[in-house]
Amino acid sequence: MTRQVEFYFDFGSPYSYLAYKELPRVAQRTGAQIAWRPILLGGIFKATGNHSPAEIPAKGRWSRTDTARWSRRYGANLQQNPYFPINTLALMRAATGFQLRDEAAFHRYVDAIFAAMWEQQRNLNDPAEIAAVLAAAGFDPREVLSMIEDPAVKEALKQATEAAVARGVFGAPSFFVGDELFWGNDRLLFVEEALAG
């Protein structure tokens, strides 16, 4: 039986970006499949009383150093986004919509948005900038805008976020192997052990 790791992520989390870069290698080493779980981190924070590290000045400064360390460790190219924090509601709705409609497009979209946010330092608070990123990745921005306004897509993201909270998720990235929760890209060591065990 193929093992599975569920990956709960939000584009606004630099640690989600780091996990996105490393998790495929963990999956390859263990023969596991990744179940992608886009969620709205702001909704998770609101429901659980958690806060972004950016809201705590000392932790925010430390996180910038910490993410740079992890970026080097993973061979990633994380660049601090000067427009952070970014409201990811539309971005996460689009991820949900693509996942519901077209798996290949979903992965292409995830690649494009993570790169724009954490490698290219794009201002994804700006709809025109989002449209430019989408067009460069081969998407029709008008079609994506229509999709994120679809009530079914809105509801799917809402339900996914609520279901994550019900499972105990309080931040991103989070992972499940079976019913066991792991939080943070630095817990991928334990995710790998669980997948290999």
TrEMBL record:
Keywords of this entry: Isomerase
Record carries keyword Isomerase: yes
Domain of life of the native organism: Bacteria
InterPro entries, sorted: DSBA-like_thioredoxin_dom (IPR001853), GST_Kappa/NadH (IPR051924), HCCAis_GSTk (IPR014440), NahD-like (IPR044087), Thioredoxin-like_sf (IPR036249)
SUPFAM superfamilies: Thioredoxin-like
E.C. designation(s): 5.99.1.4
Database matches in CDD domains: DsbA_HCCA_Iso (cd03022)
UniProt GO MF annotations: isomerase activity
Domain DSBA-like thioredoxin: 4-196
Reactions performed catalytically: 2-hydroxychromene-2-carboxylate = (3E)-4-(2-hydroxyphenyl)-2-oxobut-3-enoate
Protein family according to the UniProt entry: Belongs to the GST superfamily. NadH family.
A Pfam family the protein falls into: DSBA
Name the record gives this protein: 2-hydroxychromene-2-carboxylate isomerase
